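Support request, priority: normal
Reporter: lab tech (M.K.)
Component: structure prediction queue

Hi team, I submitted a job for Exonuclease, DNA polymerase III, epsilon subunit family from Lentimicrobium saccharophilum yesterday, and the status page still shows it as pending. I've pasted the exact input below so you can check whether something in the sequence is tripping the parser. The sequence length should be 447 residues. Please let me know if I need to resubmit or if it's stuck on your end.
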Amino acid sequence: MYAVIDVETTGGNFASERLTEIAIYLHDGEKIVDEFSTLLNPEQPIPYMITRLTGISNEMVAGAPRFCEVARKIVEITEGATFVGHNASFDYNFIRHEFRRLGYNFRRPTICTVKMSRKLLPGLQSYSLGKLCRELGIVIENRHRAAGDALATTRLLELLLETDRQAIEKQSGYTIPQMIKEVPEETGVYYLHDEQGRIIYIGKSNNMFERLLQHFRNSETSKAVEMRNRAASVSYEHTGSELIALLLESDEIKAHKPLFNRAQRRSVFSYGLFDFTDENGYRHLQVGHQLNGQQPVTSFTTLEHARKYLYGIVERFELCQKLCGLYETRGACFHYGIKQCRGACIGAEAPEAYNRRVDAAIRLSGFMHPDFYIIDRGRHRDEAAVVKIAGGRYCGFGYISPSEAHDLTSLDNCIRQYNDNRDTRQIIQTFLKKNPRTKIIRVQSGD
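Reply from support: The job had stalled in the queue. We restarted it manually and it finished. Here are the results:
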């Protein structure tokens, strides 16, 4: 059975917006066998632009039922059916969030007719519902109203069933494995274990349940099939924060080296770029083995990568080859002869001037500020996640009450220590670039 669903809403964010209309057509693979459609009172104003798009006004929904009044009907009509939608994740997430407000966990297998159309009807100019239906000769009545769009999606589903019924039925007939049923649709790190309890795969997702479902549905590669067949149990750690999930995943893969994380598990950082100051006051940057207790400027998996990186910053900042361990000589380095070194190797450039460029090169390898805390969302409303950076290096993460997130002592005390390496710094830098509004608490020297 297929429950073809379309919703209209007060906006695009399911976490803050509400439903204004829902339509459901229950289809047995041959014909429509039941249907349900109603306006909904969103219990918040409908923006003017949304009214212009859908035609649904505040006056129209004033006397409509609230979602809680039709929730039981939605559960009953979709029970045992596959949730079908055009861009299904939009409709599904809105409905799931409405149920979550009521304390109910609404879950259904899903089929997205956008994805299935791309797969079964390749080469079309557009896969938006309006243009796709126009090209396929499907008439849409009341465009941007739930019933009209849901009925058009039902006709599209019928066409897709005619094109490749086996592909559709294979996806809709999928049952959720018992081992993942208790995994929440939350951000975190998940672990697949074999029959001996060994970790065979570690992953991160903003929706752990959906990501695991994808793993167990995937039969496209031999690796995916083998991993699924070996999996005997699942465990997970809910992090709330996407940044912490990324950092924890990276650390756990390096620690456990799971069989099916082949690419990531090779990221063992054996080499580092170290800095020290000589008796003449010049700062040196040199590549060396990373030993316990040493804190490099940055880390590398191979000597080749480390030396390539050092050559790059020597050229960019006109650093001395000799002071960077790239040219052995008692006199001037080769770059000095071609005017790419300013003479630190022979004392022609003052240490203070040279060291300023070394500082700039080090900053390029790390963060804009050497000491700070990142404050992110926690695992629930009354919690904040904290990531600590000290001396330009990642120290670890923890959780704290939002009311204490301004106190440096409390922030420091909540941190669980983790290893710093090039991967963790890259993860943090990328996250901050993608999320420029992330809350940062800088630590001033002396605090």
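Residues 319 and 415 are 37 Å apart (CA to CA). The domain at 2-175 is CATH 3.30.420.10 (Nucleotidyltransferase; domain 5). Let us know if anything else looks off. Ticket resolved.
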